[in-house]
């Protein structure tokens, strides 16, 4: 009976049993601690990875922003050139209109002068002027 009382059905002695529980508890705690450490390492690596990805994304966005700024400068330059051309065309149009009016005035003066010349012989005769 002594033998049976010292050993249970698993074959462990009654004296080893508390130690077995302690050692299995210790092993379990060690395993949990190891898993927690791995999880923390993984989490830390994930944060590092996320930070690296965020930096890369920021660099891409900065590059795109710079490209957009350069394109905006080009477009503004082109717009300024078009506006200058339109101003010149407007000025030309104004000049042309002025020249057109001046030409009309001069043509009217020429016509009036021609009429005066046609009437001049009769005027000379009336005034008593004879060449």
UniProtKB/TrEMBL annotation:
Residues 1-44 are annotated as: Disordered. Keywords: ANK repeat, Coiled coil, Repeat. The keyword Coiled coil applies. InterPro entries: PP1_Regulatory_Subunit, PRKG1_interact. Gene3D superfamilies: 6.10.250.1820. Pfam families: PRKG1_interact (PF15898). Residues 44-116 form a coiled coil. This is cGMP-dependent protein kinase interacting domain-containing protein. Residues 46-124 form the cGMP-dependent protein kinase interacting domain. It comes from the Eukaryota. It comes from Characodon lateralis.
